[in-house]
Structure to design on (175 residues):
């Protein structure tokens, strides 16, 4: 598998974006480059990543998001791989609009599996296309900022950037 790789500067660190065939296959922070590569290799076997400027215009859209156009990522095609359940979770997480949050249990209930909050958490933690599949918008039942593979400081920044409201937004103001 040959994919284009670009780096996007952001206030929370360099973002790596791997794209090909009109979709993003992986997106992660540069300090987790090995996780990005491992995710791709688990899905495709040998992967060749070739440096490219703004593949598919996706880097420009990421920059627009970082500059305040919160809808810039909403319809970017993704190829995350995953099991059928993971793909259902990731599709549901993509429905959470910028500035909103959902608890793991709420996501599970929306999938018709209200007792699957832990499974939702595991799927969310394996999301290979962060930001576009906005796993940072999924929070604990009490509004706490739990588990984010990129780190809780990044999760806090992303939610603040999006103007998170409700319990998560109130918690951000207190932190």
């Amino acid at each position: 598998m040959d994919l284009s790789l670009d780096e996007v500067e952001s206030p929370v660190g360099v973002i790596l974006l791997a794209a090909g065939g009109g979709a993003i296959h992986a997106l992660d922070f540069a300090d987790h480059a090995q996780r990005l590569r491992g995710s791709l290799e688990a899905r495709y076997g040998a992967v060749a990543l070739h440096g490219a400027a703004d593949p598919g215009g996706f880097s420009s859209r990421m920059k627009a998001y970082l500059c305040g156009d919160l809808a810039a990522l909403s319809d970017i095609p993704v190829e995350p791989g995953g099991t059928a359940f993971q793909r259902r979770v990731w599709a549901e997480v993509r429905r959470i609009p910028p500035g909103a949050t959902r608890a793991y249990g709420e996501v599970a209930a929306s999938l018709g599996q209200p007792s699957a909050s832990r499974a939702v958490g595991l799927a969310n933690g394996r999301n290979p296309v962060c930001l576009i599949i906005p796993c940072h918008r999924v929070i604990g039942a009490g509004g706490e900022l739990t588990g984010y593979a990129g780190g809780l400081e990044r999760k806090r920044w992303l939610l603040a950037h999006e103007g998170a409201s409700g319990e998560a937004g109130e918690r951000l103001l207190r932190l």
